[in-house]
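Internal ticket - ligand job 184, magnesium ion:
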Amino acid sequence: MSGNPDVSKERLHPDLAGFAMVGDVGCGKTALTLAMLESGEKVRKTQAVVFHPSHVVDTPGEFISRPAYYGALLATIADIDTIVYLQPANSKTFSLPPGLLHVYPGKRVVGVVSKTDLSDADTETACRVLADHNISPPYFLTSTETGEGVDSLRSFLITLQKSDSNLGADAKHAERAHVGVNEF
Ligand SMILES: Nc1nc2c(ncn2[C@@H]2O[C@H](COP(=O)(O)OP(=O)(O)O)[C@@H](O)[C@H]2O)c(=O)[nH]1
Ligand SMILES: [Mg+2]
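stdout (structure tokens):
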């Protein structure tokens, strides 16, 4: 079947906004994005950056697995406040060169350990890999098979978005005040 005319276009979580999913090919970015959005879309191989409404961005794993695409990854996340980085629960390796996710100062990186339902999952090691790469807790343990962690991660991202929009207003005031200070 092509297309999905029966899926309502109405968004169940309009406040879920402003983040990009980043991680290796097959780590579960698309499945987790669609689970958080409660979208009925089928998980297909992500061939290009997918922009859902409100700056919810699903990136192709090639952005991570191919160094030639690091520039494209950085350009894609430039305007997004929050990066959600997925570390599969059965992987001990970090898929990016150190520091790449922290190129932009002030961007928040949220650590997710995905696919916790796998029989060879080792969530403790996966959390350690995140910590070793400067991603601070809390970490979200998720599985789109069992639904573990999907609601918690969604709620956390919504909270961040709300606090960012308040901060945005404060930052504008601060910026104005700062300009004033520099004008004497
Ligand atoms: N067991 C298990 N499989 C998953 C989970 N999340 C995704 N998958 C499967 O892993 C494969 C890759 O998932 P996908 O979301 O396309 O990964 P992406 O390349 O990071 O977007 C698909 O076959 C998914 O069904 C999970 O939490 N548990
Ligand atoms: Mg994908």
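Auto-summary: The two ends are 67 Å apart (CA to CA). The longest strand covers residues 82-88.
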